[in-house]
Specification:
The structure holds 2 protein chains of 2 kinds. Chain A has a domain at 92-230: Glutamate synthase, alpha subunit, C-terminal domain (Pectate Lyase C-like, 3 Solenoid), CATH 2.160.20.60. Chain A contains 3 helices and 12 strands, in the order βαβββββββββααββ. Chain A has helices spanning 10-22, 196-213, 217-221, and strands spanning 2-4, 27-34, 48-54, 64-71, 84-89, 105-108, 129-132, 145-151, 171-177, 189-192, 225-230, 240-241. In chain A, α1 links the parallel β1 and β2 (27-34). The radius of gyration of chain A is 18 Å and the shape is globular. Chain B folds into 2 domains: 26-118, Alpha-Beta Plaits (2-Layer Sandwich), CATH 3.30.70; 200-535, Alpha-Beta Barrel (TIM Barrel). Helices cover 32% and strands 18% of the residues of chain B. Chain B is built from 18 helices and 23 strands. Chain B has an 8-stranded parallel β-sheet. In chain B, strands 6-22-23 form a 3-stranded mixed β-sheet, covered by helices on one side. Chain B has a two-stranded antiparallel ribbon with strand order 1-4. In chain B, β20 (414-418), α13 (424-433) and β21 (437-440) form a beta-alpha-beta unit. Chain B is globular and about 100 Å long. Chain B starts with a helix and ends in a 5-residue tail after the last strand. Classes of the chains: A alpha/beta, B alpha/beta. Chains A and B meet through α1 and β12 of A and α5, β5, α8 and α9 of B. β12 of chain A pairs parallel with β5 (119-122) of chain B, so a sheet runs across the interface.
Chain lengths: 242, 540
């Protein structure tokens, strides 16, 4: 089913998507998307949505299940508190990618803004995964409590990440292709030893990422990764007088 | 003759030992003294088992129960449970030199900080001696010129609807004639044409304030949920998620979305009657939530999706909200996710600029503005923040209500006031000042057994309320606690009806914003101006 999004408010657009899903349609194409917010917000369904144009803020927020492909860029707060499903952006995204994400996957072909992967969390089999092909700004993976974030930095002309990486982090794992300087790290994280299981994990998600964007897996996989973990289980456990 | 001290000084090893010991020796002295009446004590060790702070212990060698006063927090659990009433807890009498400036409390806090280097933590609302404006506001009653109403025999309306009200309503009027027995009769039907925004229907203008799973135990949540269901009111999950077994109380549940996004998924949003974005709370304006790792057990780890034993960090700002426009974005993100079927509340702390903030919140699209005042409670907050930040709820209510009226947008959102409501008279005064309903937290906890020892942040609540320790949690029977809560709501509702009846008012709608029926007593002129009430003695 094709929906022409031109001149549709976010409310109308979402209504059309919801009624399509309700009638059992599982493939939807949104044409001429021009910054409409909240696309597929809270949508709980097994549906494939292709977005042509620029997706607005809060794409797929609170979403549980759908697979979304954006052929263009997306704005801020993509995958805000997303529960399950997959978002693939064939371009760049704005700030606060994956805020409080609880599950599912987000693949960004190019860059993400500030505070990408903030507060992502996990429990047992619910492990959110974010893979970013380009670079990120400051406060990458802030307050990270769980899940996996992989940063590739494919455009080597750009600095791969800003400063304060993993500030407030107390769970989960960050993989960065290549190196970051110690001064770029938040004081709650450190580089840890790379293990065989890490290789398998990266291989799995990298292969999926590359096939999403038709990238050459072998070319990307050759470079070594830096693994970052939280230094402490309770970064602020000692600042209080009991 | 040599004193023992100088003998010790001759040995350098001993001096070191003494120095070391001195460093470890705390300068703090106990807050409380526990007295045990030896005639009454039967050495049954109930007190030993009841105290999670280990104040009581059984000395096997001496074959008697010992008490360490320094560990007592005066939660009175032992004194209450002692079968023979042998235990009394009193303030510790230490003859510290009286000083109005450097009080015993100040000294103790300095000792504690110099020994730990830590930020002082505390629980519940501030205990500081600020003027309580409620106690300086007097209610009116009807005499001679207008009749009072007897609420026991006449209908009194406490039902309250929370949510945005339309600017205007349109009806379709349909008249029809039909033949009666002897004459023509005429009926008129009115049909509402305006689509009303979603509303929360309360049988009485009281809700249970946000308290999170993690800060409070599951049994406490069960009690709040059951009581809300039975009273036709609402409880609020706080920001710690909602255990699946409580989904059945969804129609009486307000769920919170806070900066940590704990437990927020589509089921959580779906099951609730309303969603509240938590921006701030009265006990710690400008400070994020911080559930100490001691309380993050396996169950809490599951609902919050963070590792067990870590501190659950809810940062002060939502990092997707840096402006009113951003707040609007989150409001509509949630409204889209819930199909515009539920009222959306935004909770903020009462701070200096609260009127303008509330106006922004309403314009951002919120259906309810919840305002938490200076005395709002908490499970854990830095003492300095709790005791020094924010403004009293009394002033905030009238400032916000006045501002929204001036701007002509008062109908667009309901106001819930929170922060230290102690009794039904406070509730009546709050509504007369302009609130639609009130949140009660501390009063509800006290109804369930809380004794305000302010140690919630330790996770050792002996009353089974603010703890996750399974041994302590089972002390609170959710059925009994729910019964006590229902009794409280019932009693307050009756009292509200009595007060309203005395004023000659038979519907809470007519009380709302009715500041003419309030008088200030012993209040400063500026306070009267902000409250927009007249001084006692001045007539209508």
């Amino acid at each position: 089913m094709i929906i022409n999004s031109q001149n549709l408010t976010h409310k109308k657009l979402n209504e059309k998507i919801r009624s399509a899903v309700k009638s059992g349609i599982n493939r939807i194409e949104l044409k001429n998307v021009n910054g409409q917010r909240y696309i597929a917000s809270g949508l709980k369904a097994d549906v494939n949505i292709k977005i042509y144009g620029t997706a607005g803020n809060d794409l797929g927020s609170f979403m549980s299940g759908p697979e979304i492909n954006v052929f263009g860029n997306a704005q801020d707060c993509v995958a805000n508190t997303m529960d399950a499903g997959k978002i693939v952006v064939h371009g760049s995204v704005g700030d606060i990618l994956g805020y409080g994400m609880r599950g599912g996957k987000v693949f960004i072909k190019d860059d993400a803004g500030y505070r990408a992967g903030i507060h992502i969390k996990s429990y047992k089999e619910m492990v959110p995964v974010i893979v970013i092909g380009g670079s990120v700004h400051d406060f990458f993976a802030e307050y990270m409590a769980g899940g996996i974030i992989i940063l590739l930095g494919l455009d080597r002309n750009k600095k791969i990440a800003g400063n304060f990486i993993g500030t407030g982090m107390h769970g989960g794992t960050i993989y960065i292709r290549g190196k970051v300087e110690t001064y770029q790290l938040g004081k709650e994280v450190s580089t840890v030893k790379f293990e065989e299981t890490d290789n398998e994990l990266i291989k799995k998600y990298l292969a999926e990422f590359c096939s999403s964007f038709n990238l050459d897996y072998r070319k990307i996989a050759t470079q070594k990764f830096t693994k970052l973990k939280a230094l402490h289980h309770r970064p602020y456990g000692t600042i209080y007088a009991y | 003759m040599e004193s023992s001290a100088s003998v010790l000084c001759k040995s350098s090893v001993s001096v070191q030992c003494i120095r070391k010991a001195n460093m470890k020796k705390s300068l703090l002295f106990p807050d409380f003294t526990v007295t045990r009446d030896p005639d009454k004590c039967i050495q049954c060790e109930v007190c030993v088992r009841q105290c999670a702070f280990d104040a009581h212990s059984f000395d096997k060698e001496a074959n008697k129960i010992e008490t360490d006063n320094s560990k007592c927090v005066s939660c009175l659990r032992c004194a209450t449970m002692c079968p023979t009433g042998a235990i009394t807890v009193s303030e510790h009498q230490q003859n510290i030199k009286k000083n109005k400036n450097w009080t015993e409390k100040q000294l103790k806090e300095l000792y504690k900080q110099s020994e730990t280097g830590g930020i002082l933590l505390t629980g519940m609302g501030t205990d500081k001696d600020y003027k309580i404006i409620w106690d300086h506001i007097l209610l009116d009653a009807a005499q001679v010129t207008n009749p009072s109403i007897d609420p026991l025999r006449e209908p009194m309306e406490l039902r309250t609807y929370l949510g945005a009200k339309p600017d205007r309503i349109e009806f379709r009027v349909q008249s029809s004639e039909f033949r009666g027995q002897n004459k023509k009769l005429r009926t008129t039907n009115y049909e509402l044409q305006t689509k009303l925004p979603p509303q929360l229907k309360l049988e009485t203008p009281i809700l249970f304030s946000a308290m999170s799973y993690g800060a409070i135990s599951l049994n406490t949540m069960r009690a709040l949920a059951r009581a809300a269901d039975e009273c036709g009111i609402f409880y609020n999950t706080g920001e710690g998620g909602l255990p699946k077994e409580l989904y059945k109380y969804g129609k009486n549940t307000i769920v919170q979305v806070a900066s940590g996004r704990f437990g927020v998924d589509s089921d959580y949003l779906d099951v609730a009657a309303a969603v509240e974005i938590k921006v701030g709370q009265g006990a710690k304006p400008g400070i994020g939530g911080h559930l100490p790792g001691e309380k993050v057990t396996e169950e809490i780890s599951q609902t919050r999706m963070i590792p067990t034993g870590t501190d659950a960090l809810s940062p002060a700002p939502h990092h997707d909200i840096y402006s009113i426009e951003d707040l609007s974005q989150l409001i509509y993100s949630i409204k889209e996710a819930t199909g515009y079927k539920k009222p959306l509340s935004v909770k903020v702390a009462a701070v200096h600029n609260i009127a303008a903030i509330a106006s922004g919140i309403v314009r951002a699209g919120a259906d309810i503005v919840a305002i938490d005042g200076l005395r709002g409670g908490t499970g854990a907050a830095p003492t300095r923040i709790r005791d020094n930040v924010g403004i009293p709820i009394e002033l905030a209510i009238s400032a916000v209500d006045s501002r929204l009226r001036e701007e002509g947008i008062r109908n667009r959102a309901s106001i819930i006031a929170a922060g230290g409501f102690r009794n039904s008279a406070d509730v009546v005064k709050a509504i007369a000042l302009g609130a639609d309903a009130v949140y009660i937290g501390t009063a509800a906890l006290v109804a369930m057994g809380c004794h305000l020892c302010q140690k919630c942040y330790t996770g050792k609540c002996n009353w089974g309320i603010a703890t996750q320790d399974p041994y302590l949690v089972k002390r609170l029977n959710p059925e009994i606690a729910a019964r006590r809560l229902v009794n409280l709501i019932k009693a307050w509702s009756h009292e509200i009806k009595e007060i309203m009846g005395g004023m000659g008012i038979n519907a809470v709608e007519s009380l709302r914003g009715n500041r003419l029926r309030l008088r200030g007593f012993d209040l400063h002129e500026n306070e009267l101006k902000i409250l927009d009430i007249k001084p006692a003695g001045e007539s209508m």
